[in-house]
Design brief:
The protein is an alpha+beta fold. 24% of the residues lie in helices and 46% in strands. A 13-stranded antiparallel beta sheet has the order 6-5-4-3-2-1-15-14-13-12-11-10-9, with helices on both faces. A two-stranded antiparallel sheet has the order 7-8. Strand 13 and strand 14 (213-223) form a beta hairpin. Helix 1 (3-24) crosses helix 2 (26-49).
Length: 257
């Protein structure tokens, strides 16, 4: 075969082989597209939950157990998806306690303790709420998402996604996440342990206008193992504000205590 014939042969053979390969294994290309789309869905839901820019807000957590209510209040300062300060403002006995998250590292600062205490994102903060629920709400950065199916709830289609931890240090090992297909509003999440056990569920409710988007201002977390135990998180006074990097340092946190 001369050189010209070889070039012509190659030009039509390679596209033909690609078409045949796609027909024989269409799931490979489709699967990659589905996963990419799933990650985009989670990222857009992250944008609905909280602003991606610097912001400040207040949070009240009311936890119920055995007919008793326990109330905690916090002020939260957040910069991007990797810096968060959580300041306890109530009860008075815990006022001045501060959580600082930088990347996936988390420390607790206590008014009467000279050195910070290293904590896990998965460690319980209060009620059904883990440290990571307040300090790191970056699902799209912490998990690999796969679109499982579409489910109709109250007449609206929701994407059901499986989120698997991208790093062993994140808050949950696995999450099943429902996101409204039309507007990317989060609807529900189920949180699972490394052993596969359902730990708790979360409902995102009471959507209100804040900084240009309708955002969930009330989250209901229910314990899947202890019936009747739940925590209600109520967000308020959310507003964007420029926050200096120095706020997320040990020396500056001493000024807040």
């Amino acid at each position: 075969m001369d050189a010209n014939c070889s070039k012509k042969y190659t030009r039509w053979l390679l596209p033909l082989l690609l078409v045949i390969g796609h027909c024989l294994n269409p799931g490979a290309a489709l699967g990659a597209g589905r996963n990419e789309n799933a990650q985009q869905i989670v990222a857009k839901a992250d944008e609905i939950r909280f602003p991606q820019e610097d912001f400040q807000m207040d949070l009240t957590i009311t936890s119920s157990s055995d007919g008793q209510n326990d109330v905690h209040k916090y002020q939260i300062l957040s910069k991007g998806s990797d810096k968060t300060v959580v300041i306890t403002t109530y009860p008075p006995s815990e006022r001045g306690q501060i959580l600082l998250m930088k990347d996936r590292d988390l420390w607790a600062y206590m008014p009467d303790v000279s050195q910070p205490i290293r904590l896990s994102l998965a460690q319980r903060l209060t009620g059904q709420v883990a440290n990571g629920d307040l300090t790191r709400a970056n699902f799209s950065g912490d998990y690999h998402a796969t679109l499982l199916k579409t489910e109709t709830i109250d007449g609206q289609d929701h994407n059901v996604l499986e989120l698997n931890a991208a790093d062993p240090g994140v808050t949950y090992h696995r999450v099943i996440y429902w996101v409204n297909e039309a507007n990317f509003r989060p609807y529900k999440a189920e949180f699972y342990s490394a052993s596969g056990r359902l730990m708790k569920t979360c409902l995102y409710t009471d959507f209100r206008q804040a900084e240009g988007k309708l955002r969930p201002t009330r989250l209901i977390m229910e314990d899947a193992l202890r019936k009747g135990e739940k925590s209600v998180l109520e967000y308020s006074n959310l507003h964007k504000r420029k926050i200096s990097d120095k706020v997320f340092t040990k020396d500056y946190l001493k000024k807040l205590q």
